Amino acid sequence: MNFEDINAVKKLLSESRNIVIVPHKNPDGDAIGSTLGLWFYLKSKGHNASVIVPNDFPKFLKWMPGNDHILIFEKHNTQSKDRLKQADLIFTLDFNHLGRAGQMEELLATSEVPFIMIDHHQKPDDYAEIIYSDVEMSSTCEMVYNFIEYLGGKEEITPEIADCLYTGIMTDTGSFKYSSTTSRTHRIVADLIDRGANNPKIHNLVFDTNTPSRLHILGCALKNMVILEEYATAYITLSQEELDLYDHKKGDTEGVVNYGLTLDGIRFAVIFIENKEEGIIKISFRSEGNFSVNEFARKYFNGGGHMNAAGGKSEVSMQETVDRFLKHLDEHKEALSKL
């Protein structure tokens, strides 16, 4: 953030406000961690803050400090709308296009209050009065840490805030293994631990609380994996029938796409997940090296994200979606063979 933006934020927060904090639809660890971390900080400064998420989030994140205060728009519709009407400031975290807010998009788009965006994805829209956008950052949680520091509040980071921000950084960096993890990231994580983040407990609660259904879905996904060595690519399909067979719950497919990249020689991994309720095939893309899945997702599957991690969707059948993917994959064969 530049000096002018920091001063503008300080001015906006100089008196008590009704603030709503919103993450993207299908919130992950970074979305929930960043919103709750900021919520705790704003509450401590005397603001009437609320976190409203578009829809529910995975069970493995529901241990997080403050999660019982989150309003889920799909479930708490009237209360959520009331909070939005009362708001005089809105933060949007971990997304940069209002379309990523799901059913909340129209309410946000028609709101006349100032917005502050904190996000690390590419090509942000310009709906916010203050935009803190940095695609080089490991996570929105790292940015919220910086945001608090810019406001002079680093010494006010509590163990609760530290737990939330640590969780988001850990999950969005793949436990600190992705290239977005910098020495600054590690220094921030060290400071969060010093301020009370219980890192062994967090790792356990996020990664070691699997259900039988989640492991069965993982087994099904790995069985369905197709390896295309000539394209350095692996892809997985999961049909609605397969998800139903193993009693799929929200979050059960989180991270499954990354298994493709654990294969020697594979640099591009994709998972196609059928969602009959929404009438779409949800797609997650991951890559290593300089192959931009962000551009691939934007160009072919109405999506986007980061250089090495992106999402998209398709509104045709699973087979048609895969066929389309394979066609476009062949167009990038030369680039993939050089990874």
In short:
With 339 residues, the chain is an alpha/beta fold. It is built from 13 helices and 12 strands.
Primary descriptors:
inorganic pyrophosphatase (n-terminal core), 13 helices, alpha/beta, DDH_dom, Bifunctional oligoribonuclease/PAP phosphatase NrnA, six-stranded mixed sheet, 2 domains, 339 residues
Can you walk me through this structure?
The protein is an alpha/beta fold and 339 residues long. It folds into two domains: 3-207, inorganic pyrophosphatase (n-terminal core) (Alpha-Beta Complex); 212-337, Diaminopimelate Epimerase, Chain A, domain 1. The protein is built from 13 helices and twelve strands. The protein has a six-stranded parallel β-sheet, with helices on both faces. Strands 7-8-9-10-12-11 form a six-stranded mixed β-sheet. A hairpin with a 4-residue loop joins β9 (268-275) and β10. α6 (159-172) runs antiparallel to α7 and α6 packs across α8. 42% of the residues are buried.
Helix content: 25-40%
Structural class: alpha/beta
Rg calculated over all Cα atoms: 20 Å
Instruction: Give average pLDDT, whole number.
Output: 95
* Sheet with the most strands, sense and barrel status: 6 strands, parallel
Overall, the morphology is globular
| Beta-strand percent range | 15-25%
Low-confidence stretches: none
User: Which topology of the largest domain does CATH recognise?
Assistant: inorganic pyrophosphatase (n-terminal core)
Organism: Pelagihabitans pacificus
Protein name: Bifunctional oligoribonuclease/PAP phosphatase NrnA
Pfam family, one: DHHA1
Domain DDH: 18-169
